[in-house]
Design goal:
By secondary structure, the chain is of the alpha/beta class. The protein contains 11 helices and 18 strands. α1 crosses α3, α2 packs antiparallel against α3 and α10 packs across α11. The model has no long low-confidence stretch (mean pLDDT 95). The structure holds adenosine-5'-diphosphate, aspartic acid and magnesium ion. The site of magnesium ion has 5 residues, from loops.
């Protein structure tokens, strides 16, 4: 009997009708002789609505109480789904993250899973039950309820699949798999039948929302194959697993991210270890640097540029303001309209010709490239975020057709 972990996102569970449709899919999977664990997100936009509600009460909701509030969203969908399955004659039982032993560290709103004590889940499965688990939540060793950060249900699903040594992990959303670009933006985007773990990780971390980057990273680390599919049809979706192609260099996808910011420290004294200090201070606040580059306007001064997620802008500005205060001279400026566009595919970063064609295509649109980074399987250009969508469309036409 195979064990299948399925994850259903908010759009798959948006209303009672959708919940019934998902229940029917789960019951079908069970009746085919599989054991099933279903991980659920909150219904539709429930999590966004709960965040808005908290902000109406206070502009700065406390992190612990925010976790208490947001975990309620998944409780609603998990219990309704269990009821809908019972209505179809299936036997299901729903659990919160803490009930199924999803143990996290203590960082509210962005906890990491430390371990999964899955005995209770295994017992339920051994009794033939379908287990429904609330995604995106866990409990810390000091028994506080935590959340994994927005979009965290994908991570819950892959982590459970790893812990239970599942035979398959299926992530259902409103698109039939991973496409060569966001299908909502590029109507001609192509569905990719398969991707390597590494390609998926790069697509996810540069803006393809369909699988959360942490889930993609976890799958890659544990070599847990994942299939991304739609809960609205029976398309076979995209299989993410070990690389099969050898050395052929192909652009698989074009991604974009409109939620970045760039901070520039201009005219700081050369050789003052400013960059090292800024990086250390940002690390203390757990602010990830997406990219760093520096310019040398000449003389004894340099300009330092940091690209970060816009969500980290305020703490980063504070950190850099303080660093600047200790220097003789220099200026801090912020560009909060930064976005990025990336080409992803094994080998693309090692091909100078591909980078040259990318820059030519962007120049043809008169897009000013603020910075570029590349790795073996990704090339990313930073630009004004208003330009990212037309850049994706042009690059899709240039590289994919
Ligand atoms: P869920 O709520 O089920 O977790 P998400 O909204 O997080 O679903 O992810 C699905 C969305 O990801 C799609 O509606 C699609 O617009 C978007 N998306 C962005 N880039 C891609 C891509 N390359 N392939 C497929 N979907 C993508
Ligand atoms: N409901 C949570 C969110 O909207 C978790 C998830 O959907 O993955 O972020
Ligand atoms: Mg999602």
């Amino acid at each position: 009997m195979a064990l299948i972990v399925q994850k259903y996102g908010g759009s798959s569970l948006a209303d009672a009708g959708r919940i019934k449709a998902v229940a029917a899919r789960i019951v079908r999977t069970r009746r085919r002789g599989n054991r099933v664990v279903a991980v659920v997100s909150a219904m539709g936009d429930t999590t966004d609505d709960l965040v808005k509600l908290a902000r109406q009460v206070t502009p700065a909701p406390g992190q612990r109480e925010l976790d208490m509030l947001l975990t309620a969203g998944e409780r609603i969908s998990m219990s309704l789904l269990a009821m809908a399955i019972a209505d179809l004659g299936g036997e299901a039982i729903s659990y919160t993250g803490s009930q199924v032993g999803i143990i996290t560290d203590a960082r509210h709103n962005r906890a990491r899973i430390l371990e999964i004590r899955a005995e209770r889940l295994k017992q339920a499965l051994d009794q033939g039950k379908i287990a429904i688990v609330a995604g995106f939540q866990g409990v810390s060793l000091s028994r506080e309820v935590t959340t994994l950060g927005r979009g965290g249900s994908d991570t819950t699903a892959v982590a459970l699949a790893v812990a239970l040594e599942a035979d398959a992990c299926e992530v259902y959303s409103d698109v039939a798999g991973v496409y060569s670009a966001d299908p909502r933006l590029v109507p001609g985007a192509r569905k990719l039948p398969s991707l390597s773990f590494e390609e998926m990780l790069e697509l996810a971390s540069s803006g393809a929302q369909v699988l959360h980057p942490r889930a993609a990273g976890l799958a890659a680390r544990h070599r847990m194959p994942v299939r991304c599919l739609s809960s609205f049809n029976n398309d076979p979706g995209t299989h993410i697993g070990k690389a099969r192609r050898m050395e052929r260099v192909v652009v698989r996808g074009i991604t974009h991210d409109k939620s970045l910011a760039m901070l520039a420290l201009s005219g700081v004294p050369r050789g003052g270890r400013t960059a090292t200090q800024v990086v250390a201070k940002l690390a203390e606040r757990e602010i990830a640097i997406k990219s760093f580059f520096h310019g040398a306007p000449g003389g004894k001064r340099v300009d330092l540029f940091f690209v970060i997620s816009e969500a980290d802008l305020e703490p980063a500005r504070e950190v850099m303001g303080r660093c600047l205060g200790r220097l003789k001279g220099g200026r801090l400026s912020v560009n909060r309209r930064i976005g990025s566009v990336s080409l992803v595919g094994s080998g693309v970063g090692g091909e100078a010709g591909i980078i040259a064609r990318m820059l030519e295509a962007l120049a043809g649109l008169r897009i000013h490239v603020e910075g570029l980074t590349s790795s073996e399987i990704k090339v990313t250009c930073f630009m004004d975020r208003g330009a990212t969508e037309k850049a994706v469309m042009k690059l899709h036409k240039t590289f994919i057709g």
